[in-house]
C-alpha cells in the first residue's frame, strides 16, 4: 500500500471526525460559516461541515454571579464600601444577542451597578443605608433588567451583601451602641434595686405586724391566765391583793431562773431582792388607786359643769310678742 493513499485515508478520517462535536448541558454553541452566523446548537451531539463551518464560541446558560465593590458617600458625608452581588444568566432564546451584542458583559453590569448605587446611596444617611439596603438592591435589579434584557441577559437577583463604613465611623457607632446598652443596663439595675428595697420594706412591715400581733396574743393569754389564777386563789380564801402579790413574786423568780439558765447572759435584773415583787405590786396598786381617784374627780367636775349649763339655759327667757297688738293711727 503506497504512502499517498495512507495520507489520504488519514486526512479523510480526520475530516470525518471533525464533522461531529458535542455541546454540554446548560450551554450553547455558536456556529459560523465563512465568518457569518449560521446557527445556535444546544446540548447533545451535533454535526457541522468541516473546513466550512466553525465553532465561533460557547455560551454558558447557567446562573452566574458577579460581585461588585463600590465606594460611595452617604447624605451625612460618611464614605462606605458596599459589596453588591448580581446573579444573572443568558436567556436561551437570546443567545445570539448575548454573544454578538456585548463584548464584555461583566463590565457592562458593573457600570450599571456603580451608576445606580452612587445615585441612591447619597440620598440616605448611614443608618438608613443599613436599614434600606433591600431598597437599594431592588433599584439595582430594576435598572439592570431594563438595560440587560436587550442584550439577552436576565437579572435573577441583586443582593447588597456588605456595607463597610470607615473604621473611625465604625468605632464611633460601637461606642454609641455600648453607651446605650450601659444606660439600659443601669436603668434595669436601678429598677431591680427599687424592687428589692420595696419588697424588703413590705417584708419588714409584715414581719412587724405579725410580731405585734404575736405579742398582743401573748399578753392576752398572760392576762387570761392571771385572771384564772386569781379566781382559783380566791376560791381557797386568798383575797385579790394577796393573790396578785403571790403571782408577781412567782413570775419574778421565774424570770431570775430563766436568766440564770443562760451561761452567756450579761443581763442584770434590778431590783432582785425577795421583797422586790411585793414593792412592785404595792407601787402598781397605789398607781391604780391614784388613777381611779383622778378619774372620779374629773367625772364629778364634768357633772357639775353640765348642771350649771342647763340651769343657765332654763333661767333665760326670750321676750314674747303681745297677744293682741293695737295699732295707733
What is the secondary structure topology, with strand pairs?
Elements: H1 3-17, E1 20-23, E2 27-33, E3 36-41, E4 44-47, E5 53-60, E6 64-73, E7 79-90, H2 95-100, H3 105-120, H4 126-131, H5 133-148, E8 153-165, H6 167-235, H7 240-261, H8 276-315
Antiparallel strand pairs: 1-4, 2-3, 2-5, 6-7, 7-8
Helix pairs in contact: 3-5, 6-7, 7-8
Describe this structure in words.
With 329 residues, the chain is α+β, with helices and mostly antiparallel strands. 58% of the residues lie in helices and 19% in strands. It is built from 8 helices and 8 strands. Strands 3-2-5 form a 3-stranded antiparallel sheet. Strand 2 and strand 3 form a beta hairpin. The radius of gyration is 57 Å and the shape is rod-shaped. The model is unreliable at 324-329 (pLDDT under 50).
Q: What fraction, in percent, of the residue positions are helical? A: 55-70%
Work out the strand percent: 15-25%
Return Rg in Å: 57 Å
- Average pLDDT over all residues: 80
Give the helices and strands as they follow along the chain: HEEEEEEEHHHHEHHH
Low-confidence stretches: 324-329
User: Which structural class do the helices and strands define?
Assistant: alpha+beta
Please count the beta strands (DSSP E, at least 2 residues each). 8
Strand order of the largest sheet: 3-2-5
End-to-end CA span: 187 Å
Shape: rod-shaped
What's the helix count? 8
Largest sheet: 3 strands, antiparallel
Task: Fill in the keyword field for this structure.
alpha+beta, 8 helices, 8 strands, single chain, 58% helix, 19% strand, 329 residues
Amino acid at each position: 500500500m503506497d504512502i499517498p493513499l495512507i495520507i489520504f485515508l488519514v486526512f479523510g478520517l480526520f475530516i470525518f471526525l471533525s464533522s461531529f462535536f458535542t455541546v454540554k448541558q446548560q450551554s450553547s454553541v455558536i456556529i459560523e460559516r465563512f465568518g457569518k452566523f449560521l446557527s445556535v446548537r444546544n446540548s447533545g451531539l451535533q454535526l457541522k461541515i468541516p473546513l466550512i463551518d466553525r465553532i465561533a464560541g460557547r455560551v454558558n446558560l447557567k446562573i452566574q454571579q458577579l460581585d461588585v465593590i463600590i465606594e460611595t458617600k452617604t447624605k451625612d458625608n460618611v464614605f462606605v464600601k458596599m459589596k453588591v452581588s448580581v446573579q444573572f444568566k443568558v436567556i436561551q432564546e437570546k443567545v445570539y444577542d448575548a454573544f454578538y451584542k456585548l463584548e464584555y458583559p461583566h463590565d457592562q453590569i458593573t457600570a450599571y451597578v456603580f451608576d445606580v448605587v452612587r445615585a441612591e446611596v447619597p440620598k440616605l444617611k448611614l443608618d438608613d443605608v443599613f436599614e434600606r439596603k433591600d431598597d437599594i438592591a431592588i433599584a439595582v435589579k430594576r435598572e439592570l433588567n431594563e438595560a440587560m434584557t436587550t442584550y439577552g441577559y436576565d437579572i435573577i437577583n441583586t443582593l447588597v451583601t456588605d456595607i463597610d463604613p470607615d473604621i473611625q465611623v465604625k468605632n464611633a457607632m460601637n461606642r454609641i451602641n455600648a453607651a446605650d446598652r450601659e444606660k439600659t443596663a443601669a436603668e434595669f439595675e436601678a429598677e431591680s434595686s427599687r424592687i428589692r428595697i420595696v419588697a424588703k420594706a413590705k417584708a419588714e412591715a409584715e414581719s412587724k405586724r405579725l410580731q405585734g400581733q404575736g405579742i398582743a396574743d401573748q399578753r392576752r393569754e398572760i392576762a387570761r391566765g392571771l385572771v384564772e389564777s386569781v379566781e382559783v386563789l380566791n376560791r381557797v380564801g386568798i383575797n385579790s391583793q394577796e393573790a396578785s402579790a403571790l403571782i408577781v413574786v412567782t413570775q419574778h423568780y421565774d424570770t431570775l431562773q430563766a436568766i440564770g439558765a443562760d451561761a452567756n447572759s450579761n443581763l442584770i435584773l434590778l431590783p432582785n431582792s425577795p421583797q422586790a415583787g411585793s414593792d412592785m405590786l404595792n407601787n402598781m396598786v397605789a398607781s391604780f388607786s391614784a388613777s381611779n381617784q383622778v378619774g372620779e374627780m374629773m367625772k364629778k367636775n364634768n357633772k357639775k359643769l353640765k348642771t350649771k349649763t342647763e340651769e343657765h339655759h332654763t333661767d333665760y327667757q326670750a321676750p314674747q310678742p303681745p297677744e293682741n297688738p293695737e295699732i295707733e293711727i
